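Field reference: sequence -> structure
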Amino acid sequence: MERGSAPEEAAAPALQPDEGQISGAIEVEQKFLFGPSTIEKLVELGAILESHVSFSDSYYDVHDWSLTRQDHWLREREGVGWELKCPPVGEMGSKETPCAAEITKHPSAPFLQPPKDTRSSHVATQYREVTSPQSIVTRLCGLLDRDPGENWKSCVSKAVEELGLEVFASFVTTRRKYRVGDLHVDLDEADFGYAVGEVEVVVQRLEDVPEALEKIQKFCRQLGLEEKTAIPGKMSVYLHRFTPAHYKALTEAGIVRKVINTTEGQNEKV
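Structure field:
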């Protein structure tokens, strides 16, 4: 999942006490389109295949997309449970702007060319992952201006029902997961015909983000990726294809970048 420069009104509420602990990890990630040679290069660089699995994800929001328009993504993942991905906001001030990796076409997916984006010099993104049920409910209620009920303040499933959240996206991903030191590399193929890779480092503090970005960029260069523009994530492509009104609202808010499918018109401009 990637984003553009979010407007000031999309800033997240202050972190709750326990969000900076177990549930407060920050994912720094950079996406790339991969080809047949990518796995060979990963093996040459000492990458270890940790798993090859398939799982389903369902994403939730209210009818006017208040959560995603504020760059908050509530997900229920098969075998994992509830997670809320939100922008890291703290002592560094506003959300970190996204950095990039050279495009390699995957033979089984249509080539998606990201547009030129002058808003940022980077295409890597950072998100805080909240997994504590109480923290998720507290933050959702803050975003939606609701008070958590006594019988559901620690139950995400009940909160989803009480807050009127509904599924707006659901898909299955087949993932090859590799590890190289503290770097994680995922090669994903979604069931709607899009494949994308991701290099990720997980840190606990905002001040560790620049070092993580440097590690990711160095590794991408070793992979032969010199990306200068952002690669669309699975969610951007899903919204673009299946829920155009939601996609339009999020691109206009600067939350997701515009997707250009060159199979539909190579000269299409944003």
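Note: The radius of gyration is 18 Å.
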